[in-house]
Amino acid sequence: MNALDYLVLFGTLLGIAAYGSWATRNRSDMKSYLKGAGDTRWIAIGVSVMATQASAVTFLSLPGQAFESGMSFIQNYFGAALALIIICIFFLPILRSLNVYTAYEYLGRRFDRKTRLLGAGIFLFQRGLAAGITIYAPAIVLSTVLGWPLEATILISGVVIVIYTVVGGSDAVTLTQKYQLGVIFTGMVIAFFVLLAKLPADLSLDDALAVAGGFDKLQTVDLSLDTSKRYTIWSGIFGGMFLALSYFGADQSQVQRYLHGSSLRESRMGLMFNAVLKIPMQFFILLLGALVFVFYQFERPPVFFNQVEWNRQVAADGSQNLLLIEEEFNEIHAEKSQLIQRWRDYQNAGDLDAAEEARQRALEAHARSEAVRTRAKAALVAIDPEIATKDSDYVFITFIFNYLPHGLIGLLVTVFFASTMSSKAGELNALSSTTMVDLYRHIIRRDASDHHYVVASRLITVFWGIVAIAFALMVRMAENLIEFGNIIGSIFYGVPLGLFLIAFFLKRVGGTAVFWSAIIVQALIIVAYFNSDVTGVSYLWLNPLGCGLCVLLSILIQLILGPHEEHPEPLNEP
Amino acid sequence: MSGSAEPGPQPGRPSPSSKRQEDSGTGFPFFRSWPAVYGFVLAVWTLWIVLLAAFMRTYS
């Protein structure tokens, strides 16, 4: 990065944060601080919901996922639109009509205090974990590539987010997310066109897609009924729907974004905006990864995409083993490029049999080059057993740093930081609201002034910011980051969703039955995840499983207990 | 563990003011009711999946 890149990076990030803080500096009562002024239009809600989901992990990890395993991950999002429609029909009218600050207040109203605290507790635990990942995930990649200390990357993004979230509250988050998402999409669209321009001159977009398809990178719909397969249309529609239903319906970081709306209509339109755009947005990001794959069929890729680590280990490796592996990889790559060129030539000449034969040979060369990459990773581990060998998160940023002009590099790095800030701010805001409304105001200080609660909310936001930064500074993770986030969601989202579904649809089931059912099922789901090699169930199915078991067990316990007594909490009371 | 029930809006029953907002239309010129909006979104959703399947078939 040169001075121009740094100017783009810091100018954009600090400018947006400063504007958000300034524009919302007068939010001095608790309602407007935690819920916003209540005048947000649908487009701002839609953008805010989208920005909270789209963390830097999305933009770093998704292209790498497509590069490595193809676009089948898109199926993970097939259920989102269905979930959003269900939220609009059942969840939104109730939550808005009760005028709640958090979704868990509703559980208190419908069941009792202990169920409300359980729902809020599960949220705080899983979102607290995820908040650390949101900062850590991009920081580890960016610090490696930029050559900055990891601690500096975490602290810069963490501290800036905490400042403007503390100063401006919920409205500052919504306002800044709008501009951050603008920067994010501008950067990604520019990267797309630069990528197209960098492909060989005789390779059109259509040709590039044919090459990607020839290597099975465009498998977007898999009708297989095999439940052990991670991504199929069925796990996407059903598992993905439950995941999205839990995320949008039972996770305060999303609920808070759409409760902002000036009316039920605005909130609904904001969610429908996301329902329509979710699949094409994720498709576009994955497509970038597939095209980066095509690009690297004609341009020599590094044998290991975390090049900083590779160069460090090459310097440390006295036996030159790594250099020999790299040389072998380069030779196979050159052979593969020629085979792909031959395949295309036969195809253009209309000789389909010869084209298919050349393609098969290119696939065989690709398999050999992947085997060499695996050997390279094993050699790295032999030198340093602590090394993180999963390098797919470095694929897209390596392309950016090696092939984009200065200025654009700064813009794309801004994209990663801006997306960290937009999603992290939404999470911090939700963690703060839940702690304030469901714990502090509910249990610790019931009758304080509005000013007291605003000050306390600010301090709680700082607390969660410090927790997230500390977690990010201490955590050690290596595997694909977006999957890790989804796995946490799959383990901890099913049960809260079950609580809300029982609350809405099973009026005969009371607080005691759902409370014990939720605790038992949550424990079972954790055990099932850590024994997935025995159960053979993909993590995406844990969500519907947790939700379904929670509902069934609640009914069963209620039948044993007999008719329940109503013990709802009063609304909007401390 | 529990407080006593107090009068207030009942879960599942929108208050009169929000009901009015809901009844005031969808904001879309072509869709007068929310079921029509949801139907449209479902149609677009189906179209995306069909297009993805066609995309995959074209280039595989």
SSE layout and pairings?
The complex is a heterodimer of chains A (574) and B (60).
Chain A: H1 3-23, H2 30-35, H3 42-53, H4 56-69, H5 80-97, H6 103-110, H7 113-146, H8 150-198, H9 205-214, H10 233-250, H11 252-259, H12 264-298, H13 307-316, H14 321-349, H15 352-383, H16 395-403, H17 408-444, H18 450-474, H19 481-505, H20 511-530, H21 532-535, H22 542-561
Chain B: H1 16-23, H2 34-59
Question: What is this entry, summarized?
Answer:
Chain A has 574 residues and is mainly α.
Helix and strand element order of chain B: HH
Q: What percent of residues of chain B adopt helix (DSSP H or I)? A: 55-70%
Instruction: Indicate the overall shape of chain B.
Output: rod-shaped
Number-wise, the strands of chain B total 0
H/E series of chain A: HHHHHHHHHHHHHHHHHHHHHH
Describe the oligomeric state of these chains in a short phrase.
Answer: heterodimer
- How many helices of chain A in DSSP terms? 22
Q: What class do helices, strands and sheet pairing of chain A give?
A: mainly alpha
Biggest sheet of chain B, open or closed, and with what strands and sense?
none
For the sheet with most strands of chain A, the description reads:
none
